[in-house]
Design goal:
- This protein is of the alpha+beta class and 117 residues long.
- The chain has one domain.
- The protein is built from 2 helices and 3 strands.
- Strands 1-2-3 form a 3-stranded antiparallel β-sheet, with helices on one face.
- A hairpin with a 2-residue loop joins strand 1 and strand 2.
- The relative contact order is 0.17.
Length: 117
């Protein structure tokens, strides 16, 4: 009686597993890049709102100050509203351009004078 030898079967399994690991790694890299870009957008929005509120309390142009700070942080100011010294801004940062992702990430923030308790 002859025993069949499956030569090379392990190679196919290893190549399939490596392909799966590569696919999962690429997907995780895209997610990590999106999270990093969103955190960057939120930080830029927070700083822009604070700069706008500071400029408003100093009598300067709040939206111009917010745009300058957003630009310095790699973001683009898309909206700026000033009401009663409270500055609300929205910014966008370029998102990752991997694996067909082409969305820009946005964030909003609001800052203004502290209210007396």
């Amino acid at each position: 009686m002859r025993v069949a030898v499956d030569r090379g079967a392990a190679t196919v399994v290893v190549v399939a597993c490596l392909g799966l690991v590569l696919l999962v790694g690429s997907a995780l890299a895209v997610v990590a890049a999106m999270v990093t870009a969103h955190r960057s957008a939120q930080a830029a929005a927070d700083l822009a709102a604070l700069a706008g509120a500071t400029a408003a309390s100093d009598g300067a142009v709040p939206c111009a100050a917010a745009a300058d700070v957003a630009s310095a942080n790699g973001a683009r100011l898309t909206d700026c509203v000033v009401a009663d010294g409270v500055v609300t801004v929205a910014v966008e940062v370029p998102g990752p351009r991997w694996l067909g992702q082409d969305h820009d990430l946005s964030a909003r923030a609001r800052a203004g004078p502290a209210t007396a308790i």
